Amino acid sequence: MKSFPQPLTAAEERYYMQKYTEGDLEAKHILVERNLRLVAHIVKKYQPPPEEVEDLLSIGTIGLMKAVVTFDPDKSVRLGTYAARCIENEVLMHLRGKKKTSKEVSLYDPIGTDREGNEIQLFDVIEMKEEDVQRKLEQKEDVRKLYQKVESELSARERIVLKMRYGLYNEEEYTQKEIAAKLGISRSYVSRIEKSAIEKLRLFFDT
Prior knowledge:
Blueprint: H1 10-21, H2 25-33, H3 36-45, H4 50-70, H5 79-103, E1 110-113, E2 119-121, H6 122-125, H7 130-153, H8 156-166, H9 176-183, H10 187-202
Antiparallel strand pairs: 1-2
């Protein structure tokens, strides 16, 4: 893996975090850049093949940026400790999603033939339990509600960022960096827009 800047000392971290809370975006960039070594360390744990390293570093950096944005400097914990959890969560979500996609099987895949030689599909032999049906109905209602709130509660820019970030409406998913490039804004601004939009939507789904 490539070399990364040395991490901040505790005093430097407090200084730049204070500057960031006062609105200094350059301080945020420094907090991210000087913790990139942590991203590389966590990615290395998963021993990814060489062709996947850059992707995982990008995914981990998204987790790091989220950590910087949501970190509470008043709590007695270093940013690195908090960021490590955020980075690992982001990497694990990506790996689990990739694993799930690789194992997905269509309900209409042929799995054999019946006595008459007719093709049998997986759909033909699955017996769905009543509680599974209910859960699917609830999920469908949540999705419907989510799309409704995306359209009615978010600003135009928030809608665009969420649609691109999470592939809503069956569109392609993009990283924050890609969205920033496409919209002509900074990656940190994309992160703030995403966070604001999610906080707005969360109000309608908290139980």
